[in-house]
Design brief:
319 residues; alpha/beta; TIM Barrel; eight-stranded mixed sheet; two-stranded antiparallel ribbon; 10 helices; 30% helix
Length: 319
Amino acid sequence: MLDSKPLLFPTDFPQLRRRGLDILQVNLGYRCNQSCAHCHVDAGPKRHEQMSSGTVDAVLDFLRRERPHTLDLTGGAPELNPNFRRLVEIACELGVDVMDRCNLTILVEPGHEDLAAFLAARRVKIVASLPCYLEENVDGQRGKGAFGASIAGLRRLNALGYGGGRSGLVLDLVYNPTGPDLPPPQCCLEPEYKRVLGERYGVCFDNLLTLANMPIRRFGSMLQSQGGFASYMGILKTAHRDENLDTVMCRGLVSVDWRGYLYDCDFNQMLDLPLDHGAGRRHISSLAGSALSGEPIQVGEHCYGCTAGQGSSCGGALS
């Protein structure tokens, strides 16, 4: 795989500073039941990195100490970590809002048949990746049969009350382009998603979040191999909007990798740009959320992926 990291520095991206810590985003490991073409984590079935029980304990100690508003669980497929359910249960008991970044297909994998019910019982918010409402596009990105399994997962969630504002169980879907383009306006694409998925498959959801593809890891390598890296970076930089700088996710989020080390965001984690600022790698076991306010954020050319056009973050469009 071609490494795009050397192409991201030096950068003229504006300097950013933190406001504090509202969201603790924890990557439970890079193992996944899928291998998606756009994946910035380069996750897949052959990856073995997983957060240990001891590191999960350190995350729980932080939650007890600092009580951030949200625990955002990601991967890979975070549900494949054997400590996933314990972490969710205790976080919910502590009153922390829990968000599961689910790929939908995991819900119908053998051995995970009760996963949707587990999440519903604890009122976990689900942010589910479905990069298109067309079967051929999804299977092209995620592998043959991925779309059908995703629809089956959505139906299972709907049967439990997720989606459509019916029971307060929130189900959001995530769209990302299939190629080197910016996503269309989130507000325009959401009604079309709801119409097609409802009419053709009888499924519903709450909100659509649109994300730009980051020029790193698997997608960055694909751009380089096709000779499109510079062109895509040109698209991102031309579409940069200063007003998006105020609401980028890294101002109030810390990303934790499977070993417990800290990063400004999930993308910096994949580029191995730790939250150190000259003081060495920092670990979740020694983190004080209140001490982060005012600290500088590590930036590179990839950060234009978050500020281009309507903006893009783990919560979708910024404007």
